[in-house]
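Long-time lurker, first post. I've been practising inverse folding by hand and with some scripts of my own, and I keep getting stuck on stretches where the structure tokens seem ambiguous. Below is the full token string for one chain I'm working on. Before anyone asks, I'm not after the true native sequence, just a reasonable design that respects the backbone. If someone could post their per-position residues I'd love to compare against what I wrote down in my notebook.
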């Protein structure tokens, strides 16, 4: 489905900082929601409206409040493995794809939370998407982590837990590596990890950024053209 450049431009303005719900309404959000509904079905329209409201309601909260609100918001979505949902063994969905279908796996939860918190003004340097081992699940798992300070033990946003807890309170998760829009770390403990270069080394992250339309200023844009 091809979505008009006008709608894409309106969403670009939203993601560059015009994300008060009142201002969103002025940008003709019905066209955006109708486009998602046409592609994903009528329930997608309500989900994206609720996402816009989340941005408006959480904007005035402190950062811990934003973490809690975003974690609870997305954890209401359904967990569905990639193969069943997308027909691929490992597919990292964009936030609009995730919101559109209202379901995904741990990577999709973490990515949607990451980009939503960026739009709420949380600094990218405080956020890292983290791959961990979860022995109880007998598989790797992905979560979002938030660092109050560079050397602090991070908070963990996990689709398996509505509470936002310190990594030290999650002995069930063993860190492997983490990344944000710029850097990649190899994790050897619950805190900082060892800087290992650019996150562009991750093929699936590069593929996701191509679909997002990340521009030269590293501003993440949810690109509806790809729907």
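-- Answer (accepted) --
I ran through it position by position. Result:
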């Amino acid at each position: 489905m091809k979505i008009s450049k006008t709608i894409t431009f309106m969403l670009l303005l939203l993601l560059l900082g015009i994300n008060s719900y009142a201002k969103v309404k002025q940008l003709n959000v019905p066209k955006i929601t109708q486009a998602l509904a046409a592609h994903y079905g009528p329930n997608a329209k309500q989900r994206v409206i609720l996402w816009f409201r989340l941005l408006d309601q959480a904007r005035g909260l402190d950062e811990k409040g934003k973490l809690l609100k975003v974690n609870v918001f997305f954890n209401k979505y359904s967990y569905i493995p990639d193969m069943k949902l997308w027909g691929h063994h490992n597919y990292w969905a964009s936030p609009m794809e995730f919101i559109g279908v209202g379901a995904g796996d741990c990577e999709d939860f973490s990515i949607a939370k990451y980009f939503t918190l960026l739009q709420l003004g949380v600094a990218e340097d405080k956020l890292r998407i983290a791959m961990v081992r979860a022995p109880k699940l007998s598989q790797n798992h992905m979560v979002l982590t938030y660092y109050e300070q560079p050397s602090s033990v991070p908070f963990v946003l996990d689709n398996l837990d509505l509470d936002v807890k310190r990594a030290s309170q999650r002995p069930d998760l063993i860190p492997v590596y983490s990344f944000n829009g710029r850097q990649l770390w190899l994790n050897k403990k619950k805190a900082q990890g060892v800087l290992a270069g650019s996150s562009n080394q991750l093929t699936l992250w590069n593929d996701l950024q191509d679909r997002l339309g990340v521009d030269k200023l590293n501003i993440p844009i949810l690109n509806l053209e790809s729907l």
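A couple of notes from the structure itself: The longest strand covers residues 127-134. DSSP finds nine helices and nine strands in the chain. Happy to go over any region you disagree with.
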